[in-house]
Amino acid sequence: MVRSLSDETGEKREISLRVAETKQKDYGRGKVRLSASAMEAIGVEVGDVVELFAKRRSASIAWPAYIEDQEDDLVRMDPLTRQNIGASIGDKVLVRKATYKRAEVVKLAVSASMQGSIQEGFQAYVKKKLFDFVVVQGDKVAVTLLGQPMMFVVVYVRPSGIVKIDDDTQVLISDKPVEELEQRPITYDDIGGLDDVILRVREMIELPMKHPELFRRLGIEPPKGVLLYGPPGVGKTLLAKAVATESEANFISIKGPEIYSKWVGESERAIRSIFRKARQSAPCVVFLDEVESIAPIRGLAYGDSRVSENVISQLLTELDGMEELENIVVLAATNRPDMLDPALLRPGRLDMLVYIPPPDLQARKEILRIHTSRMPLTEDVSLDDLASKTEGYSGADLEELVREAGMEALKRDRNASKVTLQDFERALGAVKPSITDDMVRFYAEWNEKAKKLRRVEKPELLGWI
Ligand SMILES: Nc1ncnc2c1ncn2[C@@H]1O[C@H](COP(=O)(O)OP(=O)(O)OP(=O)(O)O)[C@@H](O)[C@H]1O
Ligand SMILES: [Mg+2]
User: Fold this and answer.
1) What local confidence, expressed as pLDDT, does residue 373 receive?
2) The dihedral sign for the CA sequence 295, 300, 304, 306
3) How many domains does the chain have?
4) Which residues surround ligand 2, an ion (CB under 5 A)?
5) What percentage of the chain exceeds 90 in pLDDT?
6) Which ligand 1 atom minimizes the distance to the CA of 192?
7) Do residue 216 and residue 291 come from a single domain?
8) Burial of 144 (0-12, 13-18, 19+ CB in 10 A)
9) What values do phi and psi take at 352, rounded to 5?
10) Rounded to an integer, what distance in angstroms lies between the CA atom of residue 98 and that of residue 9?
């Protein structure tokens, strides 16, 4: 059945096509690939602007199908375009020739963590990269900065509707950040230096969900809750995101402070509804990020949000009420284990404690490798050397270091095609390590405490994953 789109021109030649993946080389290019017959059906030629509609409306440039494509009813698009229209591979999308206008103004926003990277001349660079792109308000667009994708949200366009960016377009970058922008699903390959931790977490989270019979047979109780703790920026949230992608279970994620900000006065109900949703969608992982702000030691004020006792008791009630084989696991993360209400760590609650340490030399090299994997480097850049110069840098610091080096390259030469050792040295001057000796001591003490709290280790079951 063909649904009609709002149309200003009166022309309604639209077709329903099936979404398919593009090759990697087409990622972020703002183009979709269509068969010749599909193009003919809607009256477009290569290079024309097409409007796409699934859950959301967006636009793109029509490009020819790959030579090897046999099917006429495919529209190939990169993951970002799929996100922009709210479609997955295999979904139906309506496609038609677009009515568009020249963009006078396009305003972009970046996530808060990227904002520090924006420097003089950056606007011009972004504009050059987005030349000839078509966008609508609300779209996400990616700009590659020396191999590093940087994500933007189009927060405003003038005139409204579908617009095409050209030489005269004023491209602005908003000083208001947007929420964290995910450009693609995180996998275990995106995490450096935590192989052992990943295995343990998979054993505790994936295994009980994939093979509950194994636990039943061996009479072992699967863990109900796993707490990841460790210094800021070492990959706790990153690891949880990878679990979300890779575990094949449903995933409900909530950031502690949101419980109070998003559900003002209703935080207790929010907890209840999260667990209700989890039960309905089991197998399910409930991820409580920055959990110390949901359940701090009672009496401890957390920021200016008034933590209610009721919220903590509701959380404990939910954890206690979780049936053994309900197939729900709670994953929580914190960098302040000392602030957590101890009741949360009792047996049968968050009883598996996993320490995420700051990266050692080898881990830092791994992390640098991951974050420079698409960055063209000159030969004098040695990741070994960089790893040894970055003692005390967290994963987040290393990521920032790489981004900063890219920015330095751009500052040196607007058309730079590679990042040099000198760029990295400048970046080392600007990005400082965030992990202090005091911090390391604090977590070491906590590890001792955690050992006493930890319940009996389970037998090795990893062969089953
Ligand atoms: N082990 C790692 N491997 C690769 N990248 C990492 C690693 N650790 C951190 N990073 C980078 O740093 C970013 C921030 O890390 P993350 O949000 O996971 O930190 P966190 O441990 O949750 O910190 P916090 O306690 O402040 O919440 C990640 O998105 C990733 O880009
Ligand atoms: Mg985090």
Assistant:
1) 87
2) positive
3) 4
4) 236-237
5) 48
6) 3
7) yes
8) middle
9) -105, 120
10) 10
- How many Å lie between the centroid of ligand 1 and the Cα of residue 195? 15
Residues 6+ apart with CB under 8 A from 462: 199, 202, 203
- 248: nearest Cα among 348, 189, 329: 329
Asked whether 238 lines ligand 1 (CB < 6 A), one says yes
| Residue (of 252, 257, 264) closest to 336 by Cα position | 257
CA atoms within 13 A on the CB side of 315: 30
Kind and range of the H or E run holding 386: helix 383-388
C-beta of residue 446 within 8 angstroms of C-beta of residue 337: yes
Å from CA of 244 to ligand 2 middle: 14
Instruction: Evaluate if residue 267 carries a pLDDT over 80.
Output: yes
* pLDDT of 458: 46
The domain boundary residue, chosen from 149, 173, 197: 173
Cβ atoms of 374 and 368 within 8 Å: the answer is no
**Residue 151 is part of which domain span?**
102-173
The residues, any chain, with a CB within 8 Å of residue 206's CB and separated by 6 or more, are 243, 246, 247, 248, 249, 465
Q: How far does residue 242's CA lie from ligand 1's centre (Å)?
A: 12
Is 465's pLDDT higher than 80? no
**Could you tell me if 43 and 141 lie in one domain?**
no
pLDDT at residue 10 in the model: 46
In a domain, 5, yes or no: no
Q: What's the rounded Cα separation, in Å, for the pair 291 and 274?
A: 14
Among protein residues, the one whose CA lies closest to atom 17 of ligand 1: 237
**Edge to edge, what strands does the sheet with 134-135 contain?**
101-102, 163-164, 134-135
Which ranges of 305-360 does DSSP label H, i.e. alpha helix?
309-321
Q: Which of 104, 108, 109 is nearest to 160 (CA)?
A: 104
Q: What is the pLDDT of residues 145-186, one digit of tens each?
A: 777 778 899 999 999 999 999 999 999 988 887 776 655 678
Distance (Å, whole) CA 355 – CA 216: 28
Chain centre to alpha carbon of residue 61: 26
Euclidean distance between CA atoms 153 and 142, whole angstroms: 9
User: Tokens in use for 42?
Assistant: 């809607």
Mean pLDDT value of segment 33-51: 96
- Establish whether residue 370 lines the binding site of ligand 1, counting it when its CB lies within 6 angstroms of any ligand atom: yes
Nearest to 419 by CA among 378, 379, 463: 378
